């Protein structure tokens, strides 16, 4: 009995260690308190989007002096994942962010410059699989920190990763990470480079760090042997079920209705280098193609413009020339009166008053985003939002800069695969609560 148990344990460990099938991880929405009404939630989400856009703009406007590691603000990410670090594995929650690269957590000993976190601090000296990353490692930012000096022997790579509105610093190490919400879905992946932080300026409420899923070499996806991930986000109104993130080989779409579009190469400069740019060539509402100026979503040589897909932004924002076309088309589709005070109540630009607070919203056509090589069909529930007696367009124009962002409200009930190896995005309609 004891020996067969031992055999079983070692078999399970071997299967986990190989990580051959990848991992399945639950994603929970930040601030998805059951007590929060849809309207409160969206006001909060809009505020966080604004914060994220401002942070990105701040980072991007400073193109001469920006460090190679400047990214968006981490505490505006919308989804948390649970993962475990080290051996034995210590579990913690981190923000999953497609808009930045570094994986980091706070490490003990941590002094006055650490933030409170909900789970115990990870202590590298209690793990048998921790190593510091030497200063001459190519998978590190220490070259920048050393500024050309030859590293002394035994040098541990320091880092200071700057976000638009904050920073985290410490030493870089490598560790074995465990991904997956249940033992059957787990993978243990050795030698992942990460930031072991002993000082941070950001309040990442509810989490103990961040997992970067961007395009850069330090991100989790770039460090997987099968560099891809997919997620499927359950509808905002469904507070019962959790969303899913699939890492590595398990990230795959079933054939029916899959569209695939190539990523557009990112600008070389940070923070844009980490973003996933898409080639959006047009938008239709129902069968009507909107007359959006050509080039509205073009990515410019100086790194401005373009359209990115982001997990951490809630509401899609479009350059005004495109947004006004979408807005006008939605107005033309409906016979309901627009609600003058709707935007004050909800934070949205365009709301319609339903006949009564309990009225069902009217049927509306699908909106189609025409990407290079694939159409993404958004049912009304993915671009309109019901808030009591108001029926609002869940999109907005840019308040900052010319970059457009496809937000996660528009990605509900779609299985979306980021294949960093193939440099493509694939998507298919899905019922995410049953994935
Ligand atoms: C970047 O800097 C160059 C030269 O200083 C300037 O011409 C350009 O407009 C800047 N671009 C942005 C996006 O600020
Ligand atoms: C780092 O070095 C390893 C081995 O020397 C090489 O395989 C890998 O491609 C390098 N990575 C980068 C990002 O340059
Ligand atoms: C990290 O960089 C930021 C911005 O450059 C700076 O304000 C902060 O003091 C640095 N942190 C440490 C610990 O050096
Ligand atoms: C963090 O660690 C670095 C490198 O070991 C050290 O130089 C620095 O003083 C530490 N900072 C704090 C706030 O403990
Ligand atoms: C942190 O979380 C608590 C509890 O969920 C919440 O009351 C508080 O507003 C949050 N703080 C920030 C800055 O988000
Ligand atoms: C959520 O779960 C509760 C209790 O199980 C159930 O009453 C409710 O209908 C569910 N809501 C949705 C949207 O499925
Ligand atoms: C694909 O379809 C198979 C068979 O229906 C199902 O078992 C599997 O979970 C599906 N996978 C995904 C990622 O949807
Ligand atoms: C929207 O698209 C879906 C899938 O392509 C289709 O089944 C549905 O009938 C469309 N709805 C409308 C209102 O055209
Ligand atoms: C975007 O797609 C259009 C049409 O499919 C193509 O002509 C154009 O070259 C693409 N642009 C980029 C930057 O890939
Ligand atoms: C955004 O749209 C609103 C109304 O639709 C308009 O008043 C505002 O000027 C636009 N903002 C920008 C930055 O274009």
Q: Can you give a write-up of this model?
A:
Mean pLDDT is 83; it is low at 1-19 and 57-77. The protein has a six-stranded mixed beta barrel with strand order 2-3-9-4-8-7. A four-stranded antiparallel sheet has the order 15-14-19-20, with helices on one face. Strands 18-22-21 form a three-stranded antiparallel sheet. The protein is of the alpha+beta class. It folds into two domains: 9-30 and 77-250, Acid Proteases (Cathepsin D, subunit A, domain 1, Beta Barrel); 259-425, Cathepsin D, subunit A, domain 1 (Beta Barrel). Helix content is 16%, strand content 32%. One 2-acetamido-2-deoxy-beta-D-glucopyranose binds at residues 264, 279, 281, 372. Residues 138-139, 217 line the site of one 2-acetamido-2-deoxy-beta-D-glucopyranose.
